[in-house]
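I have been asked to look over a protein record a colleague put together. The record follows directly below this note.
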Amino acid sequence: MVRAVEEQQRDALTELLADSSLTPAEQSRRFWHRVADATLVHGRLFFELSALALQDKPYTRPLRDALISIWLEPLASLYLRVGVPAEQAPTYARLGLATARGLLFDLLATDDRTSVDQAAALLDRLTGVTAGGV
């Protein structure tokens, strides 16, 4: 289930990134809302299985192997579009992924969608996505 949802989210990001009529800020905003909506449905299971993967439970090995690495390339593409140098884009991607997952955890813990959405928008500003470049 978690792999299927994650794959759907990556496919959605790829589709958004391919839409050249959208600014990187709009791509990011749409992706954030899609992921946050999905988290309200499947997020608790994701975080529960992620916790088990971090304990190295054998049945979670495929999830653990893909928790981070599978997201870095598509997220780096977004940062490259706003002018992040190629050698720094994977680091920006890792920061964006870690922050987004923390905000999704916050959303599940607090149910404060407004504050979490504001924090996600701030991340975009801090990383140059909203401002149109670094």
The CA atoms of residues 63 and 111 lie 26 Å apart. The first helix runs from residue 2 to 18.
